[in-house]
Amino acid sequence: MAGLRPGARVLDVGCGRIGLRALEPALDITGVDLIERPDYPGPFIRADASEGLPFSDGGFDLVYCSSVIEHVPPERRAAFAAEVRRVGRGWFVQTPAFSFPIEPHSLLPAAHWLGPRLRKLYWRLGAAGDWEDIRLLRRGELEELFGPALPERVGPLVKSWVCVHGPDARGESAREAADVVAQAVYHEKGQKHDSD
């Protein structure tokens, strides 16, 4: 994954029940989530990254964060991003694109383009279940937090943005590293990635 050497330490922020471990079981992955995950198959810490993580500066080779930042309230995103950048020597952050016409949590057309009041009413028709005030990011918003963002596309449409900054043991460019990681993400999206 992204040129990580064997034994590299990875932090999976917003790991859900299994997260990245499902795709990369050989890596040393520590899971972090807002709720307890007693069945998480490895080291796990319950914590809110926007309030600080109990790890040393640069303690992880890579912080992996897939489809999480849009769940963080906008006023706490800068703190969340600062903490990801503090504990990781590199990071992979992916989020659905605001410009994509289907809201990926509810699977409803244009749901994310509505104001919170209308979106909450419309949300009941979708696949997401209980209401959550999810705020998708625009490219510029993500880049302010994590640096240059690369597109993941469905045909001509950008479905999500990916920021990769990382320890690159093989000397690949950020774009090449992003391509390697994106393959894992496409595989992950094909499976059910539970980020409850």
Write the layout of secondary structure elements.
Layout: E1 9-13, E2 28-33, E3 44-46, E4 62-66, H1 77-87, E5 91-96, E6 102-103, E7 108-109, H2 116-123, H3 139-146, E8 149-154, E9 157-165, H4 174-190
Parallel strand pairs: 1-2, 1-4, 2-3, 4-5
Antiparallel strand pairs: 5-9, 6-7, 8-9
Question: What attributes does this structure have?
Answer:
196 residues, alpha/beta, Rossmann fold, two-stranded antiparallel ribbon, 4 helices, 9 strands
Description:
- This protein has 196 residues and is of the alpha/beta class.
- It has two domains: 145 residues, Rossmann fold; 37 residues, no CATH class.
- It is 22% helix and 22% strand.
- The chain contains four helices and nine strands; from the N terminus they run ββββαβββααββα.
- A seven-stranded mixed β-sheet has the order 3-2-1-4-5-9-8, sandwiched between helices.
- A hairpin with a 4-residue loop joins β6 and β7.
- It is globular and about 45 Å long.
- It starts with 8 loop residues before the first strand and ends in a 6-residue tail after the last helix.
- The C terminus is likely disordered.
